[in-house]
Amino acid sequence: MTPHRLDRTTARRLAVRAQLLDAHRPTGLLPVVHRLTFLQIDPTAAIAPNADLVAWTRLGAGYHPSDLVRELERERSLFEHRAMIRPMADLELHLAEMAAWPSAGRWREWLTANDSFRRYVLDVLRDGGPRLSRDIEDRSVVPWPSTGWTNNRNVTQMLEFLAARGEVAVAGRVGRQRTWDLAERVYPPTAAVPAEEAARRRAERLLRSLGIARRGVVGDAGEPAQVDGTSGEWRVDPAALDGAPFAGRTALLSPFDRLVHDRVRAKDLFDFDYRLEMYVPKSRRRWGYFALPVLHHDRLVGKVDATADRRASVLRVDAIHPDVPFPPELTAAVHAELAALASWSGLRDLRLPEQAPSA
Fold it and tell me: How far, in Å, CA of 338 to CA of 350, rounded?
């Protein structure tokens, strides 16, 4: 079919609306996760864990982290799998992929060599119920080799692999530590959607959550599009081309937020340059350890270098880095979002930089 021809303003607005970042806020956590398809789990909590920060950005003060715990551990409307929180309604789209993992490689070789260890772990969970990894004896035959932090962490790796295969699942958490149980006691009885159909439906769901994306991300989902000022083909969600008027707002985003996670896409559509600098030496950072991208209506306009000092109960803003000039109303909107973030985080005070932001 003839590709849709979009200007960059329209493309940006499609992306913002698809990610629930326009003025029409959603009303509950489950609709948010269903629309986004997942919340990424990351242990970094310079202000708040990523999953909570992404949810707050959409829902505002009405969201509480306990909502996420409740849906994961009591209601079982969400499930945690491979560092992502997904709707339980989507489980059927992942079961075939789980059953086929791993098809080859050193993961398969390690599991084969440690089959007795695998059966032991399953027996421990079957007989004793949910366990922390530290409560399971390491009976590996061949240790897991790695140059990174997973080297010889055999129980953790076995649990990770069994979860990838759909044999065990995360049943809950004690602090940041996961508890594990047999998948059949965490997941409801669910029939797997055949692999090819599941992949197609996952791509369609992903495109709906993004609004517009490159073909390499979503395959043949949606319809072809060309965006003025960019090269190559895009794929667009046809349901998003409804002509509805756009109303924007100001929002502070997690560095892992899907609006900015694809740095090339962010540059193409928003002309936004960003790099997560937590692993960059302090002397070489441009924007800060965990700088929050700033969305204003349909533009990404800057970054905020902020951290939560929980001992002092202060949200410290070391710098606001504008990419464009900040008029007074934009500065006020960013300050209001920072005050809302501090309040939601349970911090008594907000410390802003003395110098006003200037491009």
Answer: 8
Computed on alpha carbons and rounded to an integer, the radius of gyration of the chain in Å comes to 22
> Are 244 and 18 spatial neighbours (Cβ–Cβ below 8 Å)?
no
How far is Cα 99 from Cα 2, in angstroms, rounded to an integer? Answer: 39
**Do 120 and 148 form a contact (C-beta atoms < 8 A)?**
no
- Read off the pTM: 0.94
Spatial distance between the Cα atoms of 7 and 343, rounded to a whole number of angstroms: 38
Residues 287 and 273 sit within 8 Å (Cβ to Cβ): no
Per-residue model confidence as pLDDT tens digits over 145-182: 888 888 889 999 999 999 999 999 999 999 889 999 99
Q: What is the largest CA-CA distance in the chain?
A: 66
Q: Are 352 and 335 in contact (CB under 8 A)?
A: yes
- Amino acid found at 334: V
CA pair distance 153, 132, nearest whole angstrom: 14
